[in-house]
Amino acid sequence: YQLFSKEGEQVGRVNGLAVMGGDSGVVLPIIAEVTPSLSNSEGSVIATGMLKDIAKEAVQNVSAVIKNITGKDIANRDIHIQFVGTYEGVEGDSASISVATAVISAIEQVPVNQTVAMTGSLSVRGDVLPVGGVTYKIEAAAQAGIQKIIIPKANEADVLIEDQYKDQVEIIPVSTITEVIEHSLVGNEKKNIVDKLKKVSNVKWNFDMPEVVPASIENMKKSGTGSKNA
Amino acid sequence: YQLFSKEGEQVGRVNGLAVMGGDSGVVLPIIAEVTPSLSNSEGSVIATGMLKDIAKEAVQNVSAVIKNITGKDIANRDIHIQFVGTYEGVEGDSASISVATAVISAIEQVPVNQTVAMTGSLSVRGDVLPVGGVTYKIEAAAQAGIQKIIIPKANEADVLIEDQYKDQVEIIPVSTITEVIEHSLVGNEKKNIVDKLKKVSNVKWNFDMPEVVPASIENMKKSGTGSKNA
Amino acid sequence: YQLFSKEGEQVGRVNGLAVMGGDSGVVLPIIAEVTPSLSNSEGSVIATGMLKDIAKEAVQNVSAVIKNITGKDIANRDIHIQFVGTYEGVEGDSASISVATAVISAIEQVPVNQTVAMTGSLSVRGDVLPVGGVTYKIEAAAQAGIQKIIIPKANEADVLIEDQYKDQVEIIPVSTITEVIEHSLVGNEKKNIVDKLKKVSNVKWNFDMPEVVPASIENMKKSGTGSKNA
Amino acid sequence: YQLFSKEGEQVGRVNGLAVMGGDSGVVLPIIAEVTPSLSNSEGSVIATGMLKDIAKEAVQNVSAVIKNITGKDIANRDIHIQFVGTYEGVEGDSASISVATAVISAIEQVPVNQTVAMTGSLSVRGDVLPVGGVTYKIEAAAQAGIQKIIIPKANEADVLIEDQYKDQVEIIPVSTITEVIEHSLVGNEKKNIVDKLKKVSNVKWNFDMPEVVPASIENMKKSGTGSKNA
Amino acid sequence: YQLFSKEGEQVGRVNGLAVMGGDSGVVLPIIAEVTPSLSNSEGSVIATGMLKDIAKEAVQNVSAVIKNITGKDIANRDIHIQFVGTYEGVEGDSASISVATAVISAIEQVPVNQTVAMTGSLSVRGDVLPVGGVTYKIEAAAQAGIQKIIIPKANEADVLIEDQYKDQVEIIPVSTITEVIEHSLVGNEKKNIVDKLKKVSNVKWNFDMPEVVPASIENMKKSGTGSKNA
Amino acid sequence: YQLFSKEGEQVGRVNGLAVMGGDSGVVLPIIAEVTPSLSNSEGSVIATGMLKDIAKEAVQNVSAVIKNITGKDIANRDIHIQFVGTYEGVEGDSASISVATAVISAIEQVPVNQTVAMTGSLSVRGDVLPVGGVTYKIEAAAQAGIQKIIIPKANEADVLIEDQYKDQVEIIPVSTITEVIEHSLVGNEKKNIVDKLKKVSNVKWNFDMPEVVPASIENMKKSGTGSKNA
Ligand SMILES: [Ca+2]
Ligand SMILES: [Ca+2]
Ligand SMILES: [Ca+2]
Ligand SMILES: [Ca+2]
Ligand SMILES: [Ca+2]
Ligand SMILES: [Ca+2]
Ligand SMILES: [Ca+2]
Ligand SMILES: [Ca+2]
Ligand SMILES: [Ca+2]
Ligand SMILES: [Ca+2]
Ligand SMILES: [Ca+2]
Ligand SMILES: [Ca+2]
User: Fold this and answer.
1) E85: phi > 0 → left, psi -120 to 50 → alpha, else beta; which?
2) Interface contact flag, B224 F11, Cβ < 8 Å
3) Does domain F9-229 have CATH number 3.30.230.10?
């Protein structure tokens, strides 16, 4: 069964790319949804698809970017992320930008262009980081009829695809999640999301100094640790 | 003992279908109930029947659909899902639509038609996804006296049942949980549930922009990450 | 030491029945108590007696029935369930109706008839489900001096006890937890509990539709998932 | 080092009895303390001394009795239970009445008579249940200079101690935790605790019926589960 | 690198003593700090240094003493305890009084005398309990230039150090954490801490009787458990 | 791919140093971000990069320093720490000062000088503790084009680098996290952070005496534990 779609647009659904058996690419659909949270006091980020350790940590890194977009309302929402058809397990962090895009689309209710596929790791600050197997992934996406492929800028030199695919697919190297969103979401509201992502990355969160009772001058002099740090 | 019923209607009870030993189908009853939650601050989704990993994740995916129907009241309720008689364990995600239907029936107190059996995986957004063993399952349901069998539309081409069953059972291919509900619940309130499911899939949840103190222009210029993302 | 009593009545104590070594029955006392909860925000259901996996899940199924009787006050109470003397472990779900009866007795402070023993599995909706080893259990109870034995109606055909026991014990087949309560509790308040159980099984819990901002018509048309589910 | 004291009185400290190597008794001191809880919303019961599974469950059973004495204030307190010197681990439930007595002494700030030692299991409702190795334990306590030994009434027939100990120690068989307290605590306040224990075992906790919207008569008739339970 | 200091005074830092390889002592520095808690509703006690099971339980026992000093404010603080340089793991409970002293120093911001080293287990009620390897530890401390060594009074008879160390170090046997504090902290505020420790060990925490509805006389007579306990 | 940058400045990003294969250094970038917390009631510190046990404990030690800077607002924030590219796992505590610096930079939105690399363990009170492999790390940093390298003062004597590197890199030995911040952050706000760190290390947190009911004089005399501690 072809679990992905290569045309039209859908909310909360992204064509990711994976490597199978070391030397073969595959289109890996990722579906996200936002729901009221099971708890009155905290949100959850729930990823299914038999994720292994590195993949689970990649979802945690993506959640940092998501929480910066949603603000404190995240505590009232559960984020569901579903890797479709991966009964044998998912490893690695190269689906990170796909996960982030699916979740942002679901949050903002803005559709994702299904003619696009993507691969890339993500830092907790929104930087797109390099991944492995880029050439295998591009060829698999091209064979599947995908038209545009987003890859990390740091992987640009790794692209060694056969001539037959060069006219077929457009390769889009990116450095930040903001660029991923620009090339994958559709519709007028996309600009608002891009603006929000830019603003968030330069904010300073509020932290008050702790409410403290200053120790006496005498104690400060006596305390070895105190004078060392001071 | 025949643990399922093939006639009449019951609240919170669905005839699921499973494959045993690789090439033999079986009717697998699933019972759901909604209760006050043990906690004042969070609901729980509790599934019993010795579920293995993929089956547990399938229940998590179903819970996304459920939470979108119930809204924030879910935090005050525990959802119990019981796979009956599966002492040897349950694996796979093909009971997903059965679980969702049993829970929706229990929530809405609208009965399920017991002449129906069903098999199908479910996305967190309510799409019915394909499963394995459809032919075995249909034959087992037909032999057990079931009259209608709901299957994923993506599995329609897989149905290769023997002639003897063709007049006996009606096969209903579906693409969304909304269609599952239309074909399995009974009574006047069914229409309200279908309407609710349609409405929920197009809502946009509220997320305020984070309460932030903008960093100074000077800092924005200096910060490498800032300018990269911007 | 004989850990069970076969006469009189006691609050929170039930004579369960178990199979030992595959072909030998034994009377297994189960004691329950209700206490203030350790937590200000959630109740706990705590079962001791070295329960194995299926037995632990059976307690979870029983808790669904309990929570429907207690309502939201359950969040302020801890429910303790003690299998007495089972240092080698307890497996299976056939003690479910015994556990439910002991807890209901403790909650309502209404005594259990100690001349009764019982075996039966329980659905989350209060249906009594069949169990194994019914004949061995009945013979053990009869030998121990028990006068009435409650069994699942679905197990009625399995009862193949020797003649000597036929006059000694009364076999009571039941289909619901309500019937179990009718045959095992004593005193005037029993009727109130039975009424409560009947009422609870037909209530519809309140779930408000989620507080949502409808997406624009334009977005609804564009979104593939939206139109699929609609 | 002799870790226990055999004279005087102490708050929160009880001389328990254990079996070592199968055929040798030993005095096992148990110390309890009550503190403010680490959490604003829940208390904890923390037992140290390398307890194994049955011993951990015994502590849970004891906690049922404790919570019934303390009421809901337990959520603001942590209960610490320390088995002294058991670096090789503790198994079994025969220290249950010692644990309960040490905790009650710590809660009420009423001292325990250190000339007493004790052994006995405990039900969640306060019944003293039989244990193994009673003779070995009594002989060890006598040799250590203990004057009174509390044992379960159900173990009375097991006491086969040598003549030399018969004049040395007094054996006190008990059936309930109330009797244990009567024979082990000292001072005027002991009577208040005994009264409290008697009152608690006959109270009925408040549970409101769930806040429910009755389903329509029509639904009640249609629903199979409804009519089965009714 | 010499990780400990043997002169001056420091807040939150204590020279503990450990045995390495069975017959060799070593000075083991322990550092504590008090911080705002990560949670709005509960404090945490966090110990690092690859602690094994008995060592982890020793930290739990120490926390009982700490909570009695801090009162309910503990729920707003996290207590950090760091065993320095123990990459191979720490076992045993002989660092308990060092941990308690470091934490009390950090809480009260009163410095610890660095010319002192100490070893001793601790009960949840503040009693100092005996430990092993006292002679090895004293010799190691003396060789390292430590001037005073606090040991459990119960270990006094175990001290068999060589003559060369007898003039070099002062041995201080203690029975309670109060005495440990008296001999290890410096400055005027020490007296306040000692007074607080004395007061705390004799307080009685508030526990209200549970809010209960007395069962009727009739039920009390009928209920077997009730009459047994009464 | 070169995952680190050796010039300019970035918020929340630090060039750490690690040892690979026992005798080879490597620049290990660490990225931090601060976000709203998933929970309404507690913050989390989340570290990714396949950290092993000692590395996880090092992050806990660093969190003590962080919480002292942020005060109670930490309960509203999640701290994300990402070790980049460490798919094979990270062990040891020598990245502690890098982690602390990245998090402080992210919290204060003050950039880190990317021409600096650093290695050092950290105490919960902010002391920089010695690490292994300092020479290998310095050589690797120099070869990578790094200009300044921060090391623990306790490791100063271990630096045995080849002549070729001596003019190339500046070695900066430090004793406290305050000094690390002074040598690694850039811009005018750095001074405020240094001041805050100095002030925090000498504060005394508020702890009220527990709200207690003094036991009667009579009880105090009777209680053995009481009189021992008093
Ligand atoms: Ca939670
Ligand atoms: Ca930021
Ligand atoms: Ca919970
Ligand atoms: Ca949605
Ligand atoms: Ca409550
Ligand atoms: Ca119901
Ligand atoms: Ca907790
Ligand atoms: Ca009771
Ligand atoms: Ca927590
Ligand atoms: Ca006390
Ligand atoms: Ca908060
Ligand atoms: Ca401090």
Assistant:
1) left
2) yes
3) yes
